[in-house]
Amino acid sequence: MRRPLNPEDLFELKIVSDPQISPNGKSIVYVETRIDRLTNKYCSRIWIVSTFGETEPQQFTSGPGLDFAPRWSPDGKWLAFVSTRRGHSQLWIMPSTGGEAEPLTNIRYVGGIPVWSPDSRTIACVVNVGPKGPEEEHGRKKTPRQRFSEDVLVIDRLEYKLDTTGYLVGKHWHLFTIPAVGPDRGKYQQLTFGDYNYSSPAWSPDGQYIALAGNRTPERLDLALVNDIWVIPATGGEPRRLTRSQGPANHPAWSPDGQVIAYVGHDRSYGSYTNPGIWMVAASGGEPWELTNGFPYPVGDKSIGDIRGHKEPSISLTWASDGHNIYTCVSKAGAVHLWRFSIPDNQAIQMTTGNSVIYNISFTPDTRQVAMAITTATLPNDVWVADISNEKITNKRRLTRVNREWLSRLAISEPIRFSSRSANGPEVEGWILYPHGRTPARGLIPAILEIHGGPMVMYGYVFFLEFQLLASQGFAVIYTNPRGSMGYGQEFVTAIRGDWGNHDYMDLMAVMDYVLSQGLIDPNRLGVAGGSYGGYMTNWIVTQTHRFKAAVSMRGISNLYSLFGTSDSGFLKADEYSGPPWVFPEKYMKRSPIKYVANVRTPLLIIGSTHDFRVPIEQGEQFYTALKFQGRNVRMVRFLNDTHELSRSGNPWHRVIRLEHILSWFQKHLKVDYRYK
């Protein structure tokens, strides 16, 4: 008999990510993350599994801390990875046949992933360095003045903080190369310098150059929306810019002949709401062009969930060995699948199908095999492998079942898809999770509308622990992709640019009207919840309607005017509203829930984190104080030392306590009477 979920089931959940297939296609290494309830810490290890599936997966690394970002050397002899086992993230290396791992350097703050040179002798990576260069793990001791003045920051730039990273003062991410074999093993060389940040290094096929993404544009309001692709000699020298500072440009990938570099980006045609696509630029320089011009869906994984691995890498681009195609993943209508883009004829072919999300991929050098990390609405995550034959996916097979026992004893619900349409609006896709075992004859069901953040992401076929918890405890959970979501075309996502609370609000209300028309949901026991932009919409909804009897606003925006100056990216709102709030105050305040706070009658739970730089706690404080001042039913739960990512990768016990507060708030105000058979 399956039992309902409870918040502490989070501790038993295993999370797999970043599967990397070996050059010979026989093995896959991946990261498995677990949570220790006694130490309140995450623990990630590297595991290995045969692609033939004849043996059970085996643990490959051990020790304290976090091991992640495993990467095979091209000759298959070595495995490099990043580990925090000595306190700070450093580069480690071990034989691919197993054995003891060794630190490759004594350098702190290695970021991103290690990238091997084609000859398997050198690793490129980015390192966070200060004005005096990289810090060594066992460097000189700091003086009393140095130790006791570290909490004094001198700030003179617009973009000076970043959620989950901290304050961007005095340190930058720079490119390093580190010999992995030979007499110079571990002797690092810094290749880039200055007050700039670089990421995503990629070696040229001949090993003579390294492409990377970086921002060296003069500081301006659209700073965070601009990135360029650069090329630098592998031995050092001045980086050469290839792109035109039109928008974000990331994840460079060299063509097999070294003549062209593909990258993920866009030209900001619709500001930050522009769908990212595949762009190309000649390695020698010239005008970039978009391979995906006219393609309606965003490249990459735009799905959102609350179960993901530690420092899970973004989906990047992979060239076919013949140089005629590029493989990557695309987000479309709640699913994320592998696609092939043909360079000669600009054809886009979907390679995988089904109600699932592929969130990490890797290929063998001949692009004949692909490793995939996959989730569905009822499967948290697992590793799969497939063959690519005649440009088709064949022999797709699942290699891990890491949560088999966990799933076997819990009440997991299968979502039911539906669609609705507001007046003069497009079709909007949604899903509903009914309580496990619930039948219509047992009475009307209390329901909770969940609203995603972003807003430029999408709900879909992803396992969502929060949703399954609520459904197993007797609530129907409704989730949908209103206008502003990605995965439904450029016009759909751009519809709310500079106009939050309008078309998106109409879509959400139309969703509720449709669901209620089906006759299973109790119209007198409706709740609404959301985080980030979803928290904004929750705040907005309770100022516009009284149809919901309880609400939970998590890291939610209440005042767009003050967000401009307090968020790590609030100044980007100038791109949406044609200028800053002191020039157009009416535009910002017209769509700020705080302006209409006197209308609120819905009992509201506000959840925030003190170290949230994306939606600072002051946003929740404003709304809470205004409501409490009026004597309204409001409660605030604030988590000290957590960031905007609390629900996904925050303090483990805080994640559990957060879920308990959400559940108890809705149980109290929606009066759940659900019982299991």
Class of secondary structure makeup: alpha+beta
Mean pLDDT, nearest integer? 93
Distance between the termini: 10 Å
Shape: globular
Q: Rg from C-alpha positions?
A: 25 Å
Tally of contiguous helical segments: 12
Describe the biggest sheet?
8 strands, mixed
- Which percent band covers the strand fraction? 25-35%
- The strands making up the biggest β-sheet line up spatially as 32-33-35-34-36-37-38-39
Count of extended strands: 39
Stretches with pLDDT under 50, minimum 5 residues = none
Secondary structure: helix percent: 10-25%
Keywords: Hydrolase, Protease, Serine protease
Organism: Siminovitchia fordii
Protein name: Peptidase YuxL
InterPro entries: 6-blade_b-propeller_TolB-like, AB_hydrolase_fold, Peptidase_S9_cat, WD40, WD40_rpt
Q: In words, what does this structure look like?
A:
The protein is of the alpha+beta class and 677 residues long. The protein contains twelve helices and 39 strands. The strands form nine sheets. The protein has an eight-stranded mixed beta sheet, sandwiched between helices. It has a four-stranded antiparallel beta sheet with strand order 1-2-3-4, with no helix packed on it. The longest helix is centred in the C-terminal third of the chain and has 19 residues, at 652-670. The model has no long low-confidence stretch (mean pLDDT 93).
